[in-house]
Amino acid sequence: MSFLHNAWLERQRGLIDFSVANLGRRRGRNFGLFLAYSLLVFLLASVVLYGDALRREARLLLADAPELVVQRLTAGRHDLLPAEWLDKVTGLRGVRAAEGRLWGYHYDPAAQANSTLLVPNDAPPAPGQVEIGAALARASGLAAGDVLSLRSFDGKPFAFNISRVFEAESELVSADLMRVSATDFRAFFGIEPGRYTDLALSVSNPREVRKVAEKVLDRLPGARVVAREEMRRTYEAAFNWRQGVLLTFLSTILLAFALLAWDKASGLSAEERREIGILKAVGWDTGDVLRMKLWEGALLSVAAFLTGYVLAWLHVFYADAPLFTAVLKGWSVLYPHFSLSPQIDVAQIATLFFLTVLPYVAATIAPVWHAATLDPDAVMRE
Amino acid sequence: MVGRGVFGMIELVQVSKTFNAGQPNEYTAVREVSFSIEPGRVTALRGPSGSGKTTLLGLIGGLTRPSSGRVRLDGRDISALPERFLTELRRATFGFVFQQFQLIRGLSVLENVMLPATPTGRPYTEVRARALQLLADFDLAGRAEAKAQWLSGGEAQRVAIARALINDPKVILADEPTAHLDSVLSRQILAIFADLRAQGRSVILSSHDPLVFEFGLVERVVEIRDGQVTA
Amino acid sequence: MTSQRNRRGSTLAGWVLGMGALALLLVLLDSGRLAASHAETLRQGQARVMSDQLTDPALFTEARYARHASQADQHAAFQDHPMALEHFPAGAMTPPTVMPLP
Questions:
Q1: A90 inside 8 A of chain C by CB
Q2: Which of A42, A159, B150, B211 has the most CB atoms lying inside 10 A of its own CB?
Q3: How far is it, in rounded angstroms, from Cα C55 to Cα C51?
C-alpha cells in the first residue's frame, strides 16, 4: 500500500473528508441547495439540448428541399403563376429540373385546424382519394378507409376517400398534409388549369444557386425567388429566437439562484468564521482552508450539474420534452408527435458546466478568502 | 516522543501588543514584556482576567504577531516569519488547548481530533490510529463517534487536549484549562498535563485558579497584571 | 455507532462523483444509440420532403405564415417585431375568439 501513499494526495483526501463532513453537517440547507441547483441545470440543459436537437432535425430533414422556390408577386402579394413561367425557367442554364407546385391552405371549421393541401408530382393519389398527415388524422378522428368531407371554395361538398395516413416517422414535416390529385385540387379551390402556386427548381451545381436565382429574376421580373439557404436561416432564426425567449425566462431563475447561492455562500455566519479561525489556529494555512471550501463548493455543484444534465437528457430524449412541448405547442390543434436525436457537443457541455459550476464555486470561495487570511487569535479572545 | 528536552526555548523581548491601533477603541493588551521559558517544564502565566495572559499565549504560539518586540523560539525570531512558517509552527511545534475548547460542532470527536493532521498529509490510517489511541488514553474510547456538541465539559477538555497532541508537538499551550471544570475534573486535567511534562513536553498554561497552583505541577510562575510582568 | 466505522467522506465523494461521471458517460454512449435508432425516422422524413417537395416543418400550423415560413412574405416569421415576446400565434396559449358561423 505504501506506494499509494502520497502526502499531497493524502492532504487533498483529508480536505475532502472535511468538506464532505461539512456538507453533511448542514444537511438540510445543502440538500435544498443541491435540489435548486440541479433544477436550474436541468432547465438550462433541457433548453439547450432540445433547441440544438430541433435545429439539427430541421436542418437534416430539409437538406433535400427544393433549392429554389419561385413565387409570383402581384402588388406585393403572392399570386398564382401561369404555366408559361415554368417553360421560361425550364431551359435555363444551370436548372436541372423545374416543376410547378400546387398547394394551399384549408381551414376546417369543424376541427378548427389549418391544414396544407398539396399535389405531389411524384405518384399523386387518384382523383377522389386523399392521403392525410397523422396529426390531422388524430385531430379529426379519421383513419384510412374513412371519408373526409370538406367544403370547396364555392360551398360544394367534397368527399374524399382517405387512402392512407402518413407514417408517424415523417410527422415533423407531414403532420398537417392532405395529398390530393391535381384534378381535385383545382376543382376544390377553383384554380384553372395552367396555373400553379409556385415553382420548385433544383439546381445542378449547388454553388451556382445565386447565379441561377439572378437569371430567373432576369427572365421573370415579377418573381420572388426563395433559396433553400434562406429557408434554413429563417428556421434557425425562429428556433434561436424561441430558445432565446426560453433562456430569457430562465435567466430570471438563474438570477434567483445566483442570489440564493450568494446569500448562502457569501454571508459567512459567525459560526463559520469561528470555525475558520479554529482551523487556522490548529495549523491549517489559508490555502488549506480555501481548498477545503473549494472542494465543498465543487462537490456540491459538480454533483448537481451531473444530476441536472442527466435528468435533462432523459427529459428531452426519453420523455419527449413535455415541458417544452407545452410551450411550443400553445393552443395548436395540429401538433406533430416527434422524437429528436441528440447531437453531443463537448463545447455545449463545457459551456453549461462553466456557466453553472464556476460562478457558484467562486461565490463560495470569495468570502472565505477574507476570513481565511485573518490572524486566528480571535479564537482565543472569546 | 519528544524526549530530548533541549528544544522549545522561548524568549520574549520587549513584546507589546496593541489591538485596533489608531482607532478609538485602541487598547494595549501586552506592554513591553520580556521573559523566557525553559523547555520541558510547566510554566504558568498567572493574573486576573483581562491581564493579558491569553494574548501572551497567542503571541508565544504564533497565533498573532507582536506590535513591537520579538518572540524567539530556540533563538529564532518567529515574530517576523512569513505566515507560512507561523502556520507550520502552529501545526507541528505547538498544541493549543483553548479556553472555550473550540471543538467544531457537528463533527465527531474523532474528526475533531484528526483535524490538525489533515494539512500534514500523514497517512489517514496512521493518524486515525493515533487519534483513537489518544482518546483511549483519555478514557474517551467510547466517544469517538459522538458529536462534539454532545460532550460534557470534562470530555470536551480532554478531546481538546487530544486534538492538541495529534501532531506530537513539543509545546502545549493551554488557556485557563480548569475554568469550566469542577475540582475533580480539574485535577484530572492537571494529571494529564503532568504526564505530558513527563513525556518531555513543555506545558505553558494561563490561569488564576488557586487549584492549579496548589497541585504542585507548576514549576515556574510568571505573574501578569495590566499587560506587564510583575514577578 | 461504533468506532469501527471507517467510512471516509472522500470515499463517499468519490463514489458520488464516480457514479455521476458514469451516468454522463452512459449519456454520451447513449447518444450514439439514439442517433442510430433515429436514422430511420430521419430517412422517412427526408423521403417525404423529397417526394412532396416540402420546404418547412409542420411545427406551427395555426397560421399560414407560420406553417410555411419560407413561403410567406418577406420576414414573415417575424410578423411581430423580433423583440416581441411571441410571434407564433399558438404561443399566445389561448386561441383567438372567432365569431361562430353556421
A1: no
A2: A42
A3: 11
Burial B50-77 (b: 16+ CB within 10 A, else e): ebbbbbbbbbbbbbbbbbebebebeeee
Spell out the residues 6+ positions from residue A185 whose beta carbon is closer than 8 angstroms to its own. A102, A104, A117, A118, A119, A191
Q: Residue C60 domain-assigned? A: yes
- Residue C57 CA to residue A63 CA, distance in Å, equals 12
Q: What residues in A contact B121, CB-CB < 8 Å?
A: 6-11, 14
Q: What is the CA radius of gyration of chain A?
A: 31
Q: What is the pLDDT of residues B113-148, one digit of tens each?
A: 999 999 999 999 999 999 999 999 999 999 999 999
Does residue A72 lie within any of the structural domains? no
Q: Does A295 touch chain B (CB under 8 A)?
A: no
pLDDT tens per residue, range C62-101: 777 777 766 666 555 555 555 555 666 666 666 666 666 5
Q: From the list A13, A200, A332, which residue is nearest C60 (CB)?
A: A332
pTM summary value: 0.83
Q: Where in the sequence is the domain holding A275, given as residue range(s)? A: 17-61+234-381
Least CB–CB distance from C67: residue in A16, A176, A241: A176
> Hey, is the C-beta of A174 within 8 angstroms of any chain C C-beta?
yes
Q: At what angle do helices A286-313 and C9-52 cross, to 10 degrees?
A: 30
Domain containing A191 — which CATH number?
Answer: 2.40.40
Question: CB-CB: which of B124, B142, B144 is closest to C8?
Answer: B124
Domains: count for chain C:
1
